[in-house]
Structure formats: structure tokens, C-alpha cells
Amino acid sequence: MRTQVAIVGAGPAGLLLSHLLHLEGIESIVLESRSRAEIEATIRAGVLEQGSMDILNEAGVGARMRKEGALHHGIELAFGGRRHRIDLSGLTGKAITVYPQHEVIIDLVAARIAAGGQLLFEASDVAIAGIDGVRPTVSFMHDGQARRIEADFVIGCDGFHGVSRPMIPAGVRQDFQRTYPFGWFGILVESAPSSDELIYARHARGFALVSTRSPTVQRLYFQCDPRDHVDNWSDDRIWAELHARLESDDGWRLKEGRIFQKNIIGMRSFVCAPMRSGRLFLAGDAAHIVPPTGAKGMNLAISDVKLLSRALQAYYRGGSEEALDRYSGEALRRIWRAEFFSWWMTRLLHTFEDASPFDRQVQLAELENIVSSTALSTALAENYVGAF
Ligand code: RFL
Ligand code: PHB
Predict the structure, then answer these.
(1) Does domain 5-46+100-173+274-345 have CATH number 3.50.50.60?
(2) Which CATH topology does 181-267+352-385 take?
(3) pLDDT tier at 319 (50, 70, 90 boundaries)?
């Protein structure tokens, strides 16, 4: 098989890149190891920055997001028994949309298929070769047959555990990382929303987050031991923990409902630089990971591929590799700012076992400072909505 751009991975990065290239008349093939049903049902992110919404709208895949997504103009920070609103729109002129990642995936898959795009699901043994030449290849197994794609470029959009990043030689690549000594316990609940806006809560027992998926399904998280098991957490224990962490002086109370999914996720910060080796480019989680506290992961994947699609467009229009040469540096500048914000929000809101009583008081003082200063609230809001 022959194509212009071979894309490994059908997450938000790979699917959107393929669609953006298609809109510019550039041909691509997307290889995905999982089935369509699986990628369309995996519950992950929920928050889209305005810039991400703009990109999805411009790409013509935003109709359902505009209809079913919930526009949020603020978030709340809860600590010391009180909730404090950060007026995202008032402070930045921008908003966020809560629209689940798997719905973005459903919309992108439908758009690719409607446009006659080549999407190969359940591809296994994916191997990339020849990235130092002008005709890199991707070989794989599909429908019991060994297949090979010859392309001009290979784009690794295969997430943190994919096969692309290890292709960048160790001598060239620098990995920056930090793992956190806690994880998030996430649940999906059948109930009406407890709050009109997301609540990020700092409590002596640990962090908690009240998010939403739809008018009838809610997404809640609480800080936990990353080695813990969901089986250790009965529904009653989960509700008791969430009520304790979200206790409030003003009579507000979290709504309970039927819990129909429980999972534990680890937390890490990670950046690989450069995001390129020869004709191989990385985008999204394949190159960088943020802890979910800043809600940045899917947004970074979207902004990476926007940049990369423009660079590929410049190449195919005029043959110049200049924009491709600038891709890694330009993407990394934005990525590091999001890495900073996600690390900072994580540090601000979580309980650290080794924190001294002094550290805990300073953490509370920092939160007090943020909610009582327009300058500091604005800085948080600008980072949260991605106003840079
Ligand atoms: P993905 O989504 O991981 O997609 C990679 C795809 O590649 C496939 N793959 C392969 N295919 C072929 N061959 C191989 N060898 C392959 N290896 C892997 C995989 O099956 C998969 O389909 O990466 P992508 O596209 O870069 O997108 C990144 C986002 O998914 C991720 O950053 C976000 O989900 C992170 N995230 C959040 N981001 C936000 O912007 N806002 C949020 O509110 C938010 N909340 C979250 C999150 C991530 C979470 N988890 C589970 C880590 C909340 C959670 C709980
Ligand atoms: C989510 O709804 O899954 C979500 C929202 C905000 C975050 C992380 C995850 O910071």
C-alpha cells in the first residue's frame, strides 16, 4: 500500500490529523490496534478548551459537540469548607465545553468514514522502519495478512505506550518525567448534576473533583493510592469518602446515584524531546503526558496535530520542510506551559504524604491568595481555558 502520511493510532490526535489532512487534499491511512467499538467506548477526558472547539468546528466535526456539549463559564475551587468561583469567562473572555472524549472519537470516526478515509482497526504487530530515508514504511498484520504501507511521513499518534516514541534514538531523545505518589479513583454515576460547574476540592483527606458527562451521567474522582484496587471500594465507602472531602458550610450536598463504572488511574508528567526523528513525527500522548488535574491532555493532542497538519500542508504545497523543522520546537513551547499548569494544579490541590504541617498551611494560603486576588485568579483562568 502507498499513501502520503501513515498515522499510527486512532485517538483524538490520529483521527483529527487524518481529517485535517484530508481537508487539504492530503491522503493518509490510520492504523489502530483496537476495534472501533472499543475506541468509541473508552471513557477518558471531558474538558475541551475553546481553541480545541474552534479547531473541531473549523474541521466540520463540531455539530454534535455544539448541540450536546455543555458550555461552562467558570469552575469552583473548594477548600476549608467553602467554595470559591473562578469566573473563567469574566476573567478571560473564553469558556470551556464539557464534551466526553469518546464522543469526539465517535464524531471523528464518522467523519473519516463518510469522507472515504482509510481507517484500519485491529491492526497488530505494527512496526515502523526507514525513518531516516524519504520512504519510511509501516508493516502490520490485518485480517490475518501481513501488510506494509509505504509513505512520505509516519506520524506516531499511538499514545504513551505506543511503538513510535522508542523509534527516536536514545542518543537523540531526552525524556523528562515525574510520577506522583497518588492516583485518581474515577466513577461514573447515574444521577442529575450536583453542580452547574466543575468543583476542584482540596481536603485534608485528599483531592476530589466533581465533573459531569451529561444531564443524567456524572463523573467524579478522588485522590487514592495508585496501587489500590477498585474491589476494595464498596459504593458506600466511595460515597462516604466523597461526602467527607466535599463537605461544605453552605448546605450544598453531592447527589448520589447508581455507580456503574470504577477505575483507578496513575498520574505522571512526561515530555519527550524532540518530537521528531527524520520522517517520523510524534503528536499527543505519544510525546507527552500531563496529570489530569489541569484537563489538558486531549487539548494538547488537538493543538499538536493542528500545528503538524499546517506544516505538512506547507510541505505538500511548496516542498519546503521549514515548517516541519519548526514543529517540535513550537509544539514543545505550548506543551511545557501545559506541563507547568498541570503540575501546579496537582501540587495545589492534592495531599502529599510527606508534607509537613507547615507545607499544608502554605498550600491553603496559596489557595486563599488565588481566590482573593484578581491577578492570580486570572492567571489560573488563562491557563485553564488555554488562552495562550
Ligand atoms: P490516545 O487517546 O491514547 O490514542 C492512542 C491510540 O493509539 C492506539 N495504539 C496503537 N495503534 C496501533 N498500533 C500500536 N502499536 C498502538 N499503540 C497504541 C491506542 O489503542 C489508542 O487508540 O492518545 P492521543 O490521541 O494522543 O490523545 C490523548 C488523550 O487521549 C489524553 O491526553 C486525554 O484523555 C487525557 N485526559 C484529559 N485530557 C483533557 O484534555 N481534558 C480532560 O478533562 C482529561 N481528562 C484524561 C482525563 C485522561 C484520563 N486518563 C484515563 C488517563 C481524565 C482521565 C481519567
Ligand atoms: C473529566 O470530566 O473527566 C475531567 C474534568 C476535569 C479534569 C479532569 C477530568 O481536570
Answers:
(1) yes
(2) D-Amino Acid Oxidase; Chain A, domain 2 (3.30.9)
(3) confident
DSSP codes, 166-227: GGS-TTT-EEEEEEEEEEEEEEEEES--S-SSEEEE--TT--EEEEESSSSEEEEEEEE-TT
DSSP β-bridge partners for residue 263: 186
CATH 3.50.50.60, the chain: domain bounds: 5-46+100-173+274-345
Cα–chain-centroid distance for residue 276?
20
pLDDT at 388: 63
For residue 287, with 0-12 CB atoms within 10 Å meaning exposed, 13-18 middle and 19 or more buried, which class applies?
A: buried
Q: What is the mean pLDDT of residues 100-129?
A: 97
Integer Cα distance of 314 and 321 in angstroms: 8
| CB atoms inside a 10 Å sphere around CB 133 | 10
- Phi-psi region at 9: left, alpha or beta (left = phi > 0; alpha = psi -120 to 50): left
Q: What single-letter DSSP state applies at residue 141?
A: E
Cβ pair 53, 62 in contact under 8 A: yes
CA atoms within 13 A on the CB side of 120: 22
Residue 320 is predicted with a pLDDT of: 92
Ligand 2, residue 292: give the atom nearest the CA: 8
Nearest of 20, 101, 106, 57 to residue 296 by alpha carbon: 101
Task: Supply the residue whose CA is at minimum distance from atom 55 of ligand 1.
Answer: 44
Block residue for cell numbers 477548600: 79
Residues with CB under 6 A from ligand 1: 8-14, 31-34, 39, 44-47, 101, 123, 126, 157-159, 162-163, 186, 265, 284-285, 292, 295-299, 301
Residue 184 CA: distances (Å) to CA of 134, 225, 246: 43, 8, 15
Atom of ligand 1 nearest to the CA of 285: 26
Q: Is 284 left (phi over 0), alpha (psi -120 to 50) or beta?
A: left
Contact 188, 260 (CB under 8 A): yes
